[in-house]
Design a protein that fits this description.
The protein is an alpha/beta fold. The protein has a single domain, classed as NAD(P)-binding Rossmann-like Domain (Rossmann fold), CATH 3.40.50.720. Helix content is about 50%, strand content about 15%. The protein has four helices and four strands. The chain has a four-stranded parallel sheet, with helices on both faces. Helix 3 packs parallel to helix 4. The protein is globular. The two termini are about 25 Å apart. The structure holds nicotinamide-adenine-dinucleotide. The site of nicotinamide-adenine-dinucleotide (NAD) has 21 residues, from helix 1 and helix 4.
Length: about 140
C-alpha cells in the first residue's frame, strides 16, 4: 500500500489550527486533529467534514500534559504508520490588562505556548528517529 504523508495539528478545533488542518487535508495528507476534551463537539464536526478514519483521526488532549502529547503522537503513528508534520498550534492568550493578571495565568500561558511547542517537537523527533524509514527532517 502506498504511504500517505500525515500531519498532527494541535488546537485544531477552531481558528488557525482548523484552517491548517483543512489545508493539509486538501493537500492530500492524513491528519490528526487534536484539541482539549471540551472541544470534542467541534472536533467531531471537523472530522466529519475532512474525511473518514483512513485520513482523519480526532484526539482529545491537553497539550500542557507531556504524557497526553506522547499518547496523541502514538495514536497518530498507530493509525497512519508515521508522522511527517507536527503543527504545535495550540495556544492561549491573556486578554486582561497586565495589572489584572496573575502569576498563575502567566505560568499557564508559558506552559501552553512555549514549553508545549518544545514537547511536541521532542516527541515527534523521538517518533521519527525510531522509525528511520519515515525520516523527513
Ligand atoms: N489569532 C492571532 O492573531 C494570533 C496571533 C499570534 C499568535 N497566535 C497563536 O496562534 C495559535 C492559534 O491561534 P487562534 O487565534 O487560532 O486561537 P484560538 O483560541 O481560536 O484556538 C486555539 C485552540 O487551541 C486549543 N487549546 C488551547 N489550549 C489547549 C491545550 N492546553 N491543549 C489542547 N488544545 C488547546 C483551544 O481549545 C483552541 O481550539 C495560538 O497558539 C495563538 O496563541 C494567534
Amino acid at each position: 500500500m502506498e504511504y500517505r504523508r500525515s500531519a498532527l495539528v494541535t488546537g485544531a478545533a477552531q481558528g488557525i489550527g482548523k484552517a491548517i488542518a483543512e489545508r493539509l487535508r486538501a493537500d492530500g495528507l492524513a491528519v490528526t486533529i487534536a484539541d482539549l476534551p471540551s472541544s470534542a463537539p467541534l472536533l467531531v464536526e471537523l472530522a466529519a467534514a475532512l474525511g473518514g478514519p483512513d485520513t482523519v483521526l480526532s484526539v482529545a488532549v491537553d497539550v500542557s500534559d507531556p504524557a497526553q502529547v506522547d499518547n496523541a503522537v502514538q495514536a497518530h503513528v498507530d493509525q497512519f504508520g508515521g508522522l511527517d508534520v507536527m503543527v504545535a498550534n495550540a495556544g492561549i492568550a491573556i486578554t486582561a490588562p497586565l495589572v489584572e493578571t496573575t502569576v498563575q495565568q502567566w505560568r499557564r500561558t508559558m506552559a501552553v505556548n512555549l514549553f508545549v511547542v518544545c514537547q511536541c517537537v521532542h516527541t515527534e523527533l523521538g517518533v521519527v528517529y525510531v522509525a528511520p524509514a519515515r525520516r523527513r527532517l
